[in-house]
Amino acid sequence: MRILFCIRGDYLTNFAGDSRQLLKTADYLRKKGVSVTVNCGEITDYKNFDLVHLFNLTRITETYHFFKTAQKFHKPIVITPIYRDLQKYYRYIGDRQAASLWNCDRAYRREIIKGCQMVYPSSLLEKNALEKDHGGEFPCCLVYNGTSKPEEPFNSPDFYSKLISLKPYLFCAARICPRKNQLELCKVAGQLGLHVVLAGTINSRSYFEQCLGCSNVHYYGVLDENSLRTVYANAVLHVLCGFAETSGLANLEAGLCGTDIVSTSEGCAAEYFGDLSGYCNPYRQDDLKRALLSALSGSRQPSLKQHIEAHFFWENCLFPLLESYQKLLK
Fold this sequence. Notes:
Layout: E1 2-6, H1 17-31, E2 35-39, E3 51-55, H2 60-72, E4 77-80, H3 87-93, H4 96-104, H5 106-115, E5 118-119, H6 124-133, H7 160-165, E6 169-173, H8 182-191, E7 195-199, H9 205-212, E8 217-219, H10 225-234, E9 237-240, H11 249-256, E10 261-264, H12 269-273, E11 278-280, H13 287-297, H14 302-311, H15 314-317, H16 319-328
Parallel strand pairs: 1-2, 1-3, 3-4, 4-5, 6-7, 6-9, 7-8, 9-10, 10-11
C-alpha cells in the first residue's frame, strides 16, 4: 500500500497541529507496513501511489492544487480536514477582506469534500460543521486525535532550574498569533500574579512582542516532545484559549503529563474531555479569568490522565484510518 500525504509547504518550518498530526499518522502507518511519502508540492507525478491523503482544509490554496493533481491521475482521494469555520473570528476582529475571502473559498472546500472518497474529521462536532458549511453529508470516518505514551523518566533539560523558579506558571503550547489569543492569557495571568510560559512557532512578530511586553511572560521557543513534557508536567495549568481549535493536541499531551487544562469552548475539546477540563469563551469578556480562577481553586484531576490513557493513544485512534484505507483499496 503506497500512500501520498499532501500538506502545506511550510509544515515543518511553521510547525503546528497539522504538522504533528501528519507526522504521527505517518509513523503509525509505517509501523504497520504501509509506504508513506510526504509531499509538500515537490512531487507532481502521482502515478506510483495507490491513494492520495490530503491534510488541512483551512489553508485551501495548496490543498486544492493537490486535489486537482490527484484527480488528473485518477487516484482515490481522502482528507483529514482539520476544519474550523473562521468566519465568526474574522467578523469579531473586523477583517472584512479575510471574511470575504473565506466565503469565496467555500466553493473550493465544498468541491474537495464532494470529490473525496473519504473524509476523516477528528470529532462529531467537526463533522457536523463540515456538513453545515459545505452542503450536507459525505463519506465519513471519525479519526480522533491522539497522543503518545510519555517516556519515563522525563529528561531534565538545561532550562529545568529556571522553569522551576517560575512555578506556579501557566503554559500555552501553540503557534503565537492573534487567533490563539495568548495576549489575553498573558494579561489575565498578570492580574492573577502568575507567570506564563509560551512555546511554539511565532506567526506574528508584532503580536509576539506584545505578549513579551507583559513582565510575567517567558518564551521557550519551539520545543521537542521531551522538553515539552517537562514544561507540561511542571505547569499548574495548560491553557488553550484561542478563537478556533480542534481538540488541541497540546491539551492531550498536557493531560497525559498529569496537568489540568483549560480549553476554549470554540472547538471540539468538550467531546474529548467532557467535564475533566475547564472551558472559556474567548468572545466573552472576563470569561478566561473566570475559567482560570475556577481551575486554580479546584484539586488536580488524576482522572483526566486516566481518561486520555484509555481513549486517546495514537495506536488506538489511528486504527480506523488504516482499516478505511484497506476497504477503499480492495
